Amino acid sequence: MESIIIQGGKPLTGTVEISGAKNAALPLLAVAILADAPVVYHRIPHLKDVTTMMTLIAHQGAEVTIDDQSRLHIDARTANLPVAPYELVKTMRASSLVLGPLLARFGHANVSLPGGCAIGARPIDMHLKGLEAMGAEIKVEHGNVKAVAPKGLHGAHIVFDQVTVTGTENLMMAAAIADGQTVLENAAAEPEVVNLAQALRDLGANIEGDGTHKIVIEGVASLSGGEITVIPDRIEAATYLSAALITGGDVRATGCNPADLEAFLARVRASGALVETGSDWIRCAAPKRLQAVDISTMPHPGFPTDLQAQFMAIMCLSEGSSSIRETIFENRFMHVQELARMGANIHLDGHMAVVHGVEKLSGAQVMATDLRASASLVLAGLAAEGETQISRVYHIDRGYERLEEKFCKLGASIERCSGREPMMPQVDSFHV
Ligand code: EPU
Predict the structure, then answer these.
(1) 217, 207 in Cβ contact below 8 A?
(2) In this predicted model, what pLDDT tens digit does every residue of 302-321 receive, in sequence order?
(3) Which of 74, 139, 264, 432 has a Cα-to-Cα distance from 236 of 20 to 30 A?
(4) How far apart are CA 4 and CA 40, in angstroms?
(5) Does residue 118's CB lie within 6 angstroms of at least one atom of ligand 1?
(6) Which DSSP letter does residue 296 get?
(7) Residue 58 half-sphere exposure, CB side, CA atoms within 13 Å?
(8) Residue 91: CB within 6 Å of ligand 1?
């Protein structure tokens, strides 16, 4: 079992180049299922979840290749198996993103139902209700979603009960080639949804309103092939900037979009740090000591739940007490106990954590429980005195490309190690 070993206490400084966004790349790969010619992808990050999505689409019969300039090509004209098997879905919930495109293209699809995961129950009922409103007949049997649309999908007026990112993406893709107009209300406005809408438009779809909570899609007969570029990963960028803040350093993230991170940067400014931005870069420099600030996670443009764990890590060393409210997922505080092993003082009360800042953290053996929780432990380890050993680091590989290399360039002492067994008890794996 691999672990990450960090010798903490070094201020991180320098420049880090941001990769393509995992949560944009995953739905963008599913777009190829809808296209009637090859699709070429730029800035696809090299991540475990992306590989899983490529495997899934290849399993359906599409041709998936990478050229000598690291561009990904998907030709789904040969696809003939509208199925997402349990073996792949159980390793990545976002596999359910193929349901809408498969159903729209083939008129039937069989997609394994994702189970619960470390951060919450995460049902896909809103995806299914939306597809039913568009004419699908859906049965959930033996852990599989069996969907048929004998007369094809048609447009519908859908109001989501709650903002759902992949739910919005799934229905947007299905609606792109459905018959007539679909209106999605209370839709997600995340930058990844905008990236998807733009890509669909580039292939011939007719979509308006992305980036707001009302998206209108006029179905077209078919989508063409074309080129798709993945946006920079805002969560990755904020994680490296957080590393500057927690270690008393100064980091510039390049190749990223400051507008996608306004809520995060506002809280960082409020904590007393220096924030500078350009058209495609962000610099954060830590003050002598960060001041505690409160956050509450919200759908975009609010503070992202995918940065809650990292922000909590920073607050562990701030001056004062910070309240951190998680409103999106019911169980996204698994990092609290691990941070406590490193000396953090955090009081947990339901959906709220109160972090009482301490003067220092100390290195310890800790366990990653999900992707962003892992990132918070890396941050804490970078700031802690002494050695931190993080086990179950496969969670990190789902969402951070070349993490050790990027942190090393910023001056961290961090390495992956397969030889040293973690001393934590082994439990079943979780997935996000
Ligand atoms: N929900 C339902 N029913 C549904 C769909 C969602 O009850 O049919 C609930 C969820 O259980 C949750 C809330 O609605 O409480 C919001 O969930 P959402 O559907 O927005 O989450 P998601 O689409 O499954 C994506 C990201 C997550 C990110 C969330 C929230 C991808 C592949 N995943 O998940 O990313 O946390 O949106 O922004 O885009 C991560 O990258 O670490 C990660 C977990």
Answers:
(1) yes
(2) 999 999 999 999 999 999 99
(3) 74
(4) 34
(5) no
(6) E
(7) 13
(8) no
